Amino acid sequence: MAIEIERKFLLTATDWLSNLEGTAYKQGYLLNSEDTTVRVRVAGRQGFLTIKARAAGLARPEYEYEIPLQDAEELLKLCPNTIDKTRHKVKVGRHSWDVDLFHGENGGLSLAEVELSDPEESFEKPAWLGQEVTNDKRYFNAYLVNHPYKSWK
């Protein structure tokens, strides 16, 4: 079984990202419930289908499969809402961080995630990390797709 263990943080600044190349992401959800999500994603010129189950602490089952780009684009048309963001890969110490700058209705939101091999694993925290939001469901993409950041009060 594939397990995802990640920690998620807001960013204190994003201007330093302007010199880094990023990848455009568009994603939507074919199934989006409390227990399971089925996500379709286009990342650059690749398509993916991902199934995630409810988290138990920081860990949750995750299965991701590359699919033909055309299939992913067609599946996205079945999704009622989508998320657009640019993802930057940033190496800090032993870990690679996914730094996401959101666009459209989630514009203004920037998040950084680090995947770990164990919930207790230590990692270097870069200066641009802000508040940890790992356990705040509002910052999950599955929530943002239906409750965009710009609509928060």
Task: Describe the SSE topology.
Blueprint: E1 3-11, E2 23-32, E3 36-43, E4 46-53, E5 59-67, H1 69-76, E6 82-92, E7 95-102, E8 110-115, E9 129-132, H2 141-144
Antiparallel strand pairs: 1-5, 1-8, 1-9, 2-3, 2-6, 3-4, 4-5, 6-7, 7-8
Count of distinct structural domains: 1
% residues in beta strands: over 45%
- Strand order, sheet with most strands: 1-5-4-3-2-6-7-8
Quote the distance from N terminus to C terminus: 39 Å
Which descriptors would you attach to this protein?
153 residues; mainly beta; Hypothetical Protein Pfu-838710-001; 9 strands
What would you note in describing this structure?
With 153 residues, this protein is mainly beta. The chain has one domain: Hypothetical Protein Pfu-838710-001, CATH 2.40.320.10. It is 8% helix and 48% strand. It contains two helices and nine strands; from the N terminus they run E-E-E-E-E-H-E-E-E-E-H. It has an eight-stranded antiparallel β-barrel. A hairpin with a 3-residue loop joins strand 2 and strand 3. The termini are far apart. The model has no long low-confidence stretch (mean pLDDT 95).
Quick rundown:
The protein is mainly beta.
